[in-house]
Structure formats: C-alpha cells, structure tokens
Amino acid sequence: MPTTQQACKLSRSSCAELRRSTDGLHYAGEILSYRISGLTPHNLDRLRITLKAHQPSDASLFHIDSIDLYNSRAREGFADSCAQYLQADKGKTVAELMQLISALEAERVSMKEKGSTPAVVPMSEEEKNEALETLKSKDLLKRIVRDFEAIGYIGEKYNKLLGYIAAVSRLQPDPLALLILSRSGAGKTSLQDAVCKFVPSEAVIQYTRLTGQSLFYRDENALKNRVLAIEEEDGMREAMYSIKTLISSQKLSIAATRTDAKTGKFSVDEYTVHGPVVVMVSTTNPDALDDEAKQRFLILTIDESREQTKSILQAQLNKNMHDWYQHTSDESVIIGLHHNMQRLLKPLTVTFTRDLKLVWPYSRLQMRREQKKFVSLVKAITLLHQYQRKTGAMKRIDGTKVEYVQATQKDIDLALELGREVFARNVDDVSPTARGLLSFIVELVKEKYDTIKELDPKKNLFLSEVPFTRKELREMTGWSETQVRRNIDQLVELGYLGRI
C-alpha cells in the first residue's frame, strides 16, 4: 500500500483524468476505470457517491456500490470486492481510491463555484435591439398579455400581469411572494408554469417537493435574484419554516455539527443562503397555510366562471386549427424574446419623489405588512419600465454611489388597478373560495325566498330564515362535496352561516 506522501503525489498527477459525460463523471486509474455519480457540493463531512469500477479493456465486467469515500472501511470493502470480481490488486485499488478522493474534492470546489454563477445565454445584437424596442414600447403591458395568450394561456389579464411583474421583483431587495389559489383543475398550475416560462432559465427554480432543511444547504447565492416555484403547498409542508423565513428576511442561515473525518472531533459548519428570491406556490386548499404564512403572500385566485371555461375550451380547439399556425409565432420565439428582455433589466434602486400620491389605510395592524407589499409591487412595475423612466446615479453622504430609476404616478396607479382586489382579499377574514361560495349561497337563498313569497305573499320570512342544503349548493355550483363542506365549515366558524 502506498504511503500518504505517495498518494498525494499520485492524486496531483491524476486530477486531470477526471472527465464529464452525460452518464456521470469518469476517472481513469492505472489498473481500473471508474464511473462516479451522485456527487454533490454539499454535506462536506461525507463523500458519498455511487462508484462503478471495471477493467479498462472490458466494461461488461464491473463492480458497483454506493460508498462514502471518507470511510476507510468502505474503501477497504470496495477494494476487496474489486479483487474478488475484477482480479484487481487490493493495495493498488485502495491507492486509486485515495487519488479519486482528491480529484472529487477538486470537482466539488468547481461545482460550488459554477453553482454560484448562473450561466447567461449570450444574445446577438439583433436580439438585443428587439428586446430593447419591446421594453421601450408604450404598449409593453399589452404585449405581455398578448404573448401569454399566444402560448395558450387565455384570460386572467390581471393575474398574468401580476405574475410577470412579481417575477421581475426578484431584482429588488424586497421581492413579492405569490400564492395561487383555486379549485382543482381551474388552472393554477398552468398560470404558475406560464409565468415561469417567461423567466430566463438561469433565474427560475421549479420544485415539486422540498424537504425540511433542503434550502439551508444550497449554495450561498443559489437563490439570489431567482424565482422559486413550488407546485402544490403539500410539496413544501416540511419546509414551511424556511419558506416563511426566506420571504420575510430574504436570508437563511443554519449551524450544523459534523464529525471531522481526520480527527474524529465534532465541528460546526455554518451555511447561509441569500436572496432576494420570489417564492411562488399554488394550492387548492385555502386552509393549507396558517394566517401568519398567508399574510406574507399576494393571493391570486383563478377565474372559475363558465365564460372562462368556454373561452379555454375554444382556445384548446383553436390551437389545432390550420390557420392558427399561419398567424402565430413559435412558442420558443416568444419565450426567447422575454428571456432577453428580462436579462436586460438592471437591478436598479427604485426611488419615489415627494409629489407622488400614495395614501394607505391604517385602521388595522396588518396594513403595515400590506403597504410594504404594495410598495414592492410599485417598485417592480418601475423596474419593468426602467427604459421608459428617469434613471441616474446619486452620491450618498458616505460617498457611495447608487444607480436609481425613479417611480412615477403611473406606476402607483397601475399597481392600484392591478392589486385592488388582491389587497382587499388579503385583509379579508374569509378565504377567497369561501367568499365565492358565500356569494352562491346568497344567490340560492334569494331564489328560494322569491319562490316562497310567490306561493304565499303574506308569509313573514327573513332571508336568514330560508334553509338550504349542501346538495342544493352542489347542484348550483358544480362543486364537489369536499369543497362545499370545507368552505361551509369555515363560514359557520366565522359566523356567516348557522346550522339548523
């Protein structure tokens, strides 16, 4: 078996042998060849990988195992198996595994550096000019809405704009967070996916599920200026604490203990992940998040009307028509334009002038948080229009310089137009779906009241005395029993309905 000095010399000369391919990393030793998969830049107290070894001249005969290379017994066991199955010298195999450790540690450093610097796709001068022209257009918002429809997302004008603008807010220190709420099949995930399509690939992260501490161990800048989209709130239930903290402070930090592989002593590793990051979540359950969590989001609801359903069904048919292909652009062309547009947006500091008119109600404590979200919405609108707004640089009293873009009254007015219903919904004690069901209940009760009065005009009766059943409500709304029962329970609990 080689000495430690010999192993170190071998490792330095062999690092160049590590190469990448579509099926993993490959390492060519003197007696065996290796394929490595499962390497991550995290959990530095372990070097757990899946390692496949074979003779250089015959890849059909191999030994494969998942091992921690920092564990000496694991290395010895792997070398024993290679000696048994591949007739490889055990001592030389252990020496090659020591070389492999050094090569993989260097690869980890490279992976960590690449993870902190997202790849930016270069654009041609023609693409840049087209993107700039669109950003400077007075019809910029109409163009965004039109392009959503061109890729197949119909209606929901305000939701599309709010989603797009929220994604742009990732470039400011206090970005927005979106919670998309609807019944199953209404299109909440479609809205989320459509918004994410317009965000450059290096600036969006989409997950189906997050484990409890997964975000804490990301690279320091892995979430910075990105959109973090999670499909269904069930997928982030374990990570709820980290999500709430991330939205509020735009930073996560954790101290984790580990055992030093060389000394065996405990040590502490500190991990910090920085924002700003836009969190986007979709759900069918209005009670999935507690009030504290929901107050951190802008809550968007999907249009579930029959008219919208009719428009969607017609659009699904239209996308298959012969003339549709003749009069529309390819989806990749539309998405590519918006990627270039967003890459041209600079993370400037948005400033307000004293003459802007913005008055926010202050009757409830919650308004402190709501106004902060509204200001973030205004700033994101200004950032999107930065090529149409006054920009410059100012010198602060400490000598530092700040590049800024100045918000206008148009930005505030647009934020009011887009967010009026959303902010009213955020301070409502009833969830959006329960509020919608309450409207159906009022309509149903009025119909029954009118019928009763027609049959007996002299009968004294108040609307509150007219009974109805869940079955009648299901037939009227088309909702499932679970959806009706869940929302009725909330309305009863809050005192809007009474049971008889």
Give your account of this protein's structure.
The protein is 45% helix and 18% strand. With 500 residues, the chain is α/β, with parallel strands linked by helices. A hairpin with a 2-residue loop joins strand 1 (19-21) and strand 2.
Helix count from the secondary structure assignment: 17
Order of adjacent strands in the largest pleated sheet:
1-2-3-4-5
Round the Cα radius of gyration to an integer and report it. Answer: 29 Å
How many strand units?
Answer: 15
- Distance N to C terminus: 85 Å
Average of per-residue pLDDT values: 83
Poorly predicted runs are 1-16
What share of the residues lie within helices? 40-55%
Strand percentage, roughly?
15-25%
Based on Cα principal axes, name the global outline: globular
Task: Kindly name the structural category.
Answer: alpha/beta
Largest sheet: 5 strands, antiparallel
Task: Compile the SSE list and pairings.
Layout: H1 4-14, E1 19-21, E2 24-28, E3 33-37, E4 48-55, E5 58-68, H2 72-86, H3 90-116, H4 125-135, H5 140-150, H6 157-168, E6 178-181, H7 188-198, E7 204-207, E8 226-230, H8 240-249, E9 251-259, E10 266-274, E11 277-283, H9 291-294, E12 298-301, H10 306-318, H11 322-326, H12 331-344, E13 349-351, H13 367-384, E14 391-395, E15 401-406, H14 409-426, H15 432-455, H16 470-477, H17 481-493
Helix pairs in contact: 1-3, 2-3, 4-12, 5-6, 6-7, 6-13, 13-14, 15-16, 15-17
